[in-house]
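Researcher: Here's the sequence for the chain we discussed earlier.
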Amino acid sequence: MTSAFEALLPTTERSLLHRVARAQSEGRAPSFVAAVARGGAMVWSGARSCVDGHDPDADTQYRIGSITKVFTAVLVLRLRDEGLIGLDDPLEKHLPGTGVGEVTVAQLLAHTGGLAAETPSPWWERTPGSTRPELSDVLGETPALHPTGRSFHYSNPGYTLLGSLIEAVRGVSWEEALRTEILEPLGMDRTTAEPVAPHAGGWAVHPWADVMLPEPSEDLGVMAPAGQLWSTAADLCRFGLFLAEGDDRVLSAATVAEMRVPAAPPAAGDAQMGYGLGLQLAHGEHGTLIGHGGSLPGFVAGLWVDVAEGLVGVALANATSGPQPGVVAADLVRIVAEAEPRLPEPWRPLPASEVDQDLLALTGPWYWGTYAYGLRLGAEGGVVLEPLRGTGRRAVFRALPEGGWIGLDGYYAGETLRVVRRPDGTVSHLDLGSFVFTREPYEPGDAVPGGVDAQGWRGL
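Model: Thanks. This is the structure I predict for it:
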């Protein structure tokens, strides 16, 4: 595996820089900075600027827009993990009086609450937060546009509600919770609610001429949890690595993995994009990337993570439109994955303490009807059940303290696999959510639901 001390190959670095140079030139961005992380640390960064000799670096702040939402989602899931809220709780339980209290916490995280995409006029991204000081100003008179829980509809006000939920339950400001619960533990000291030098200025580039106009930079007030933050390529690399692996100081690996599970169907006409609990999911020919894009007047940003490869790609630009940092961040991940694929971990036998002879005797072929499956041992007393040929339902199971195993993924997620024994103690079959797996296909005398024809197997 590539570590923090193993630089990328010069040819890979050249390809990455070439992609950034194209993005800055073709996207007509005043500046463009990007970075790649792998093996626990940033392993490459590069930049281009319209001012010779003044390229930004990985420590230069840019506004990251809706990437802020991922931070807000992490804070919400911390509350859930502490038992202070439930994802199925209606908002009204913790934040009464909004008028949309029937929407659940999970629906707000996944943008399935049916809320409007934007606030009432004026355009919230270019006006000060004092224009809409209360949640009622953010929600307006008709906050719900779609049936609750039925479809994906991206909602900035929805994440404003989540920010207010955090403040109501924690008893501190969203910004303070963010700083103490995420930024400080992860060492992200260059991620802030207001810009701290060195930082880029936001620009609008004329669509039909090579001229620019400065964009305003507003404090978004109660809308801050939807898009306020400034950050750097280096800090976002740290955050991306956390989203890939978890960090018990912030969220466990299991909870971060839960964030990556699709929680909303793709929007109409966009089958390649999905949404988890605060994370965008991009499905492509090279697998699934998780992360988020962001934009505010003067800035666009992209953060993508390939969990399987342990790769993070970050791209930031200071132009309202033109550059495509989301596309570039995904391309950076692809370039490294193709040029320097992650080496698989060396195979090692199980520790002697984990080898249970009774469990070992259960391995090998099992049959669900005539479908052939193989059961093999996993780590820490777990097992893996997978089809021996053709397509089928593969699943990983974790051992339960009381015996048996619980499914962790796929069709059998949450289902219990157990061993059923005969009165004499010998193994009769495996039971998986009422499905019976026997050692032979339809063997007479086995516990096959519906029985087995007395004449047995025959030809024509």
